[in-house]
Write a structure and sequence with these properties.
The chain is α+β, with helices and mostly antiparallel strands. Helices cover 46% and strands 20% of the residues. Among the domains are: 76 residues, PDZ domain (Pdz3 Domain, Roll), CATH 2.30.42.10; 83 residues, Pdz3 Domain. It is built from 13 helices and 14 strands. A 4-stranded antiparallel β-sheet has the order 5-4-6-7, covered by helices on one side. Strands 10-9-11-12 form a 4-stranded antiparallel β-sheet.
């Protein structure tokens, strides 16, 4: 259990930290700056060795890393270091290049990860190929197909799920006639369809209305804090009975920032949970979300050719960047509303573990997202961060000279204060989130009372 929780976290953090510091390291070497230490982690060294002028370290606290360069701070007498191998002696563009190399390495890593996901396999929610309502105006109805029938073959390809049918339609030629086979009990209905009608038949297919059963619960969102679990069935919202999933979201979305009482059935035992929907977009476009997804009985994994996957990586990475910066903007503009969603090591560990359970592609997407988050955070123009070093370099370019020793030290102190404040908020939020989840689960029926598989 501990390995299942810690290993995904350590791998994510290890990759993110390593590529970030490697970017700084390689850029410093390219600029002929002496690198004194390359450390993964903070604190005492767990393992270290020296090669040339650099000491390579693996430290005990795996919450970051650093590249220590010669001359990366002013001398004690207030003078700036001189010499080709000293960081602060380099021109502004050299220092900016070294500073931006770490975030750039995270961006490249995120792109490579997102580009590889398609080739590895993308998991989609899926349902059995059992038909829902078949309208009497459709071709399927006139061919004798009815609600509850199960499609077993499409254009000669065996299918067992709705997503499998969609994939067959996408890849099969539309220029040839084809057959659809459906099963009802012991009998089979075969439909001979003309060329060019695959998409038309696909549009006529519906699934039985899904019940209001909870699938994935997003870590840190209101449902998670309230103790909602995968497999829970929602019976009512504020006393109003809920029978279908399509009834659940509208019932919740109309109560943004107001407590909602969910009547939950878990393992046959009903009980109440109170959850407060939030507006994650901050602009009223997605009101009343609690952070749950619909339960789907099947998962479909589709793999793409390498070139297709690489092409997919571009918009996917852009979407990640947009999402991360939107979240940062909302946190800055509405700090009281969003501060409780700030996450640190515990949040990353929880989320990494959950995504790993969902599938390797979900885990890789999370790893890419953390790379983008680290990139965006480090580019903030805050002293101590890479963005602070870039800001100082650009300021020197504008002024024609570096700032004084006293100004430099004040700049660093401001950065430490800002980072310290953020660190306190994160370190307070992380355990509170865990405790809140534990308390909520403790009030609900115990594991022994819960059915292992949703109905």
């Amino acid at each position: 259990m501990i390995q299942g929780f810690l290993l995904p976290f350590l791998v994510v953090l290890g990759v993110v930290i390593f590529v970030h510091e490697l970017g700084h390291f390689l850029a410093a070497k390219a600029r002929k700056v002496r690198v004194l230490k390359f450390s993964l982690g903070f604190g005492p060294a767990l393992f270290k060795f020296a090669r040339g002028e650099t000491e390579y370290r693996l430290a005990w606290i795996p919450l970051g890393g650093y590249v220590s360069m010669a001359g990366d701070s002013p001398n004690e007498d207030g003078s700036m270091p001189v010499g080709e191998g000293e960081y602060l002696s380099h021109p502004w563009y050299g220092r900016a290049f070294i500073a931006v190399a770490g975030p750039l390495a995270n961006l490249i890593t995120a792109f490579l990860i997102m580009s590889s996901i398609g080739a590895i396999g993308v998991t989609s929610p899926d349902f059995p190929s059992v038909l829902g309502t078949v309208a009497d105006s459709t071709r399927l109805y006139h061919a004798g197909v009815r609600e509850g029938d199960r499609i077993v073959s499409w254009a000669g390809t065996p299918v067992a799920s709705m997503r499998a049918i969609e994939v067959v339609v996408k890849h099969q030629s539309s220029k040839k006639p084809f057959e659809i086979a459906a099963v009802r009990g012991d009998s089979t209905i075969t439909i001979s369809a003309p060329a060019g009608s695959q998409t038309d038949y696909l549009r006529e297919i519906t699934i039985p209305p899904p019940p209001p059963i909870i699938g994935h619960v997003v870590v840190g969102m209101p449902a998670y804090a309230a103790g909602v679990k995968e497999g829970d069935k929602v019976l009512a919202v504020n006393g109003t009975p809920i029978h279908l999933w399509e009834e659940l979201l509208p019932a919740i979305s109309s109560h943004t920032d107001k407590p909602v009482v969910l009547r939950i059935q878990r393992g046959g035992q009903p009980f109440n949970l109170t959850v407060t929907p939030v507006d994650p977009g901050g602009l009223g476009k997605n009101p009343g979300r609690i952070g749950v997804e619909m339960y789907t009985p099947l998962k479909y994994v589709e793999r793409y050719p390498i070139l297709t996957s690489l092409w997919y990586g571009v918009p996917a990475t852009v979407d990640l960047i947009s999402g991360v910066y939107r979240g940062m903007w909302l946190t800055v503009t509405r700090p009281l509303y969003y501060r409780k969603y700030l996450g640190g090591p515990l949040f990353i560990a929880q989320a990494a573990s959950e995504q790993a359970k969902r599938g390797f592609d979900f885990y890789l997407q999370f790893m890419a997202m953390i790379n983008i988050a680290i990139m965006a955070f480090n580019l903030l123009p805050i002293p101590v961060l890479d963005g602070g070093h870039i800001a100082l370099a650009l300021l020197q370019a504008l002024r024609g000279q570096a700032i004084s020793y006293r100004a430099y030290m004040r700049f660093q102190k401001v950065g430490l204060a800002v980072i310290g404040t953020l660190l306190i908020l994160i370190l307070v939020n992380d355990p509170l989130r865990v405790v809140q989840r534990w308390r909520a689960l403790d009030k609900a029926p115990q594991e022994g009372q819960v059915a292992p598989t949703p109905p």
